[in-house]
Amino acid sequence: MPDQQNHTRPTGLAIWLVIAGVVGWWAAFALTVEKLEKLADPDAIASCDLSVLVQCTANLDSWQGSVFGFPNPLLGIAGWVAPIVVGMAILARARFARWFWWCFWAGIAFAFGFVIWLISQSLYDLHTLCPWCMVTWSVTIPTFYAVTLHMLRSGQVPASERVRHVADRLMAWVPLAAILSYAVILLLAQLEMNAVVNIWQTLFG
Predict the structure, then answer these.
(1) pLDDT, tens digit, for every residue of 29-58?
(2) What is the domain count for the chain?
(3) Measured between alpha carbons, how far apart are the two ends of the chain, in Å?
(4) For the stretch 95-107, what's the b/e string if a residue is b when 16 or more beta carbons lie within 10 angstroms of its beta carbon?
């Protein structure tokens, strides 16, 4: 039977939340710095601009880069604090009410949905891969999987004992699920970027 103590004080999840929060926050901070430098000097070349296809500038300067009227990285600077705080609180033996877990999951789900949309925009509209954006993607995806499964296994979501048991078993497969997700994104990027390169070569020789 799943260990209920592990579910109420999920140490592994807590450690991941702290790591993901720090990584995500740093990526958002780096993108914010790049945006500020670009605003100060429009001719500046971002340090993450590695090529026409791998760069940050196109993403930051697009309307997709400021969906809510301000640079998207500011959402990350504010939002990634939450996983850090929740993770540290769990490690300090705090326990949260069901409504708190639902609010936390809603925030993570929003981040996951937003990231999926940004990935599609990056690949099929902007035709670029932003390095710091990809760092954000890499921690958002497994965080959503892990928190969702924890919601199921811990009983925060009304479910049968069988569902909770399956969710508990699936937690060990979150890393593999994340790797498969990255592989799908890379495959789609490869296909799209090859198409863009072929069109470019056709038009400009």
Answers:
(1) 999 999 999 888 888 888 888 888 888 999
(2) 1
(3) 64
(4) eeeeeebeebbee
